[in-house]
Amino acid sequence: MNSWHPEIVLPEDEIKRALRRKTRRDFLVGGLAAIGAFGGYKWVRSRKREDGLQWPERKILDMNGQLAHSYFSDSHLMPTYSRSDVGWLKPNGDIGMDEDADPDPWVVKVIADENGSELNLSLADVKALPKTEMITRFCCIEGWSAIAYWGGARFSDFTRKYFRPDLKLTNFVYMATPGEDYYVGLDMKSAMHPQTLLAYEHDGKPLADEHGAPLRLVIPGKYGIKSIKRLGFIQYTNERPADYWGEQGYDWFAGL
Amino acid sequence: MQKLKLKHPAAIRWFHWINFPLLFLMIWSGLLIYWANDVYRIGPLHFFPAWVYRVFRMDHRLAEGMALHFVFMWLFVINGILYVAYTLISGEWRLLVPRSLSTFRNAWHVVLHDLGLHKPLPQDKYNAAQQVSYSGIIVMGVGSVLTGLAIYKPAQLAWLAALFGGYEGARLIHFVLTIGYVLFFVVHVWQVIRAGWNNFRGIVIGYELVEENE
Question: Is the predicted pLDDT of residue A117 greater than 90, yes or no?
Answer without folding.
Answer: no
